[in-house]
Amino acid sequence: MYIAGSHTMKDWYDDYTKTPYAIGDLRNSTRYQAAENALLDNPQVKEVRGHSLGGAVALELQKNYPDIEASRTYGAPVFNPLGTESNNVDRYRNWTDPVSMFDRSAVKSI
Question: What is the rounded end-to-end Cα distance, in angstroms, of the chain?
Fold first, then answer.
């Protein structure tokens, strides 16, 4: 299942108030709730992928649903300054992307 990044004003609000950089709970975001409903409607989904806010949602879904076997993110707001690895998670970011700049475990590209 692919989870898109921010598209609406509500998504951008959630970016600043509910992502790992903020104090809020990502599970309360509009994007997470929509993805969770899609996941519950499609129990055959075993992998999630997402971009930006969608990447953060993908990681949160994988954490909360043990049936999700793997995730892949692109430019996700991940706070991982020490570069600790996670199992079955592929993360990618561009060198100049400020959203994912604290993700030291992401594979970097130009």
Answer: 26
